[in-house]
Design goal:
Length: about 70
C-alpha cells in the first residue's frame, strides 16, 4: 500500500510578490487501472489539531511532579 498525505501547516507561506516558480514538464505514465480511490475519511475530534497549534506544551515522567 502506498499512501501520500500533505499537511497544510508543513510548509512556510510564500512571501507576497515573490518570484514565480519555474514550470517543468514531467512525463507521466498512463493509468493502467491498477490504482483506485477507495474513499476519503476526515477524522473529527474534540481535541485540538496539533498541526494548527502555535504553542504546544508537553510533560511527562521527566518532570518528576504533577506541578
Amino acid at each position: 500500500i502506498k499512501l501520500i498525505t500533505v499537511r497544510t501547516t508543513a510548509f512556510d507561506a510564500a512571501e507576497a510578490g515573490s518570484n514565480a516558480a519555474p514550470v517543468e514538464a514531467v512525463a507521466a505514465a498512463a493509468d493502467l487501472g491498477v490504482t483506485a480511490l477507495v474513499g476519503r475519511e476526515i477524522v473529527k475530534s474534540a481535541r485540538p489539531e496539533l498541526g494548527a497549534a502555535k504553542v504546544i506544551v508537553s510533560g511527562g515522567r521527566g518532570l518528576a511532579s504533577g506541578d
